[in-house]
Amino acid sequence: MECIFCNIVEGKSEAEVIFEDDNLIAFLDIQPINYGHTLVVTKKHYDNFLTVPSEELTHIINATQFIAGAIKRSVNADGFNVITNNGNSAGQTVYHFHFHIIPRFNADFNFKPRFKNYSTGGMKEYADNIRTIVSKYKDIYNG
């Protein structure tokens, strides 16, 4: 399957590039939530957050921090979101790892969010399940 982000990295597809180095490229999203919405993309193809090697992830996070500051200042945003969608159910539509930097303004959130509440004992149950998996795989964590 052809990857649009790989095509951008290879110069086969156009993009409005705002930053690039040996490991990543950052360009404006063609369907922005707000103007300045930028994608920070690894040049090597990785499907999602879980498949990016830690040294590359560190690099892209540092670059994303730098680029987010530039975007916030350039569009006079009140804040910004940094997100990554992983899997179809999370809204991922391009299966090449990337961060979204979305400039935000106070007027963006004039609605009431729908937060969930844990049932009695539910929070501990979720935490226990997550801790079990963390414990099982902690030896592969190299942080």
What is the CATH level 1 assignment? Alpha Beta
- CATH architect. name: 2-Layer Sandwich
What overall form do the CA principal axes indicate?
globular
User: In the CATH scheme, what's the topology name?
Assistant: HIT family, subunit A
Task: Name the CATH superfamily classification.
Answer: HIT-like
Distance linking N and C termini: 34 Å
Radius of gyration: 18 Å
How many independent structural domains? 1
Mean pLDDT: 91
Oligomer: single chain
The count of helical stretches stands at: 3
Fraction of residues in helix: 25-40%
Strand order of the largest sheet: 1-2-3-5-4
Describe the biggest sheet? Answer: 5 strands, antiparallel
H/E element order: HEEEHEEH
**Poorly predicted spans:** none
Could you please describe the fold and organization of this structure?
The chain is globular, with a radius of gyration of 18 Å. The relative contact order is 0.15. Helices cover 31% and strands 18% of the residues. The chain has a 5-stranded antiparallel beta sheet, with helices on one face. By secondary structure, the protein is an alpha+beta fold. It has a single domain, classed as HIT family, subunit A. The chain has 3 helices and 5 strands, in the order αβββαββα. A hairpin with a 3-residue loop joins β1 and β2. The model has no long low-confidence stretch (mean pLDDT 91).
Provide a quick synopsis of the model.
This protein has 143 residues and is α+β, with helices and mostly antiparallel strands. The protein is 31% helix and 18% strand.
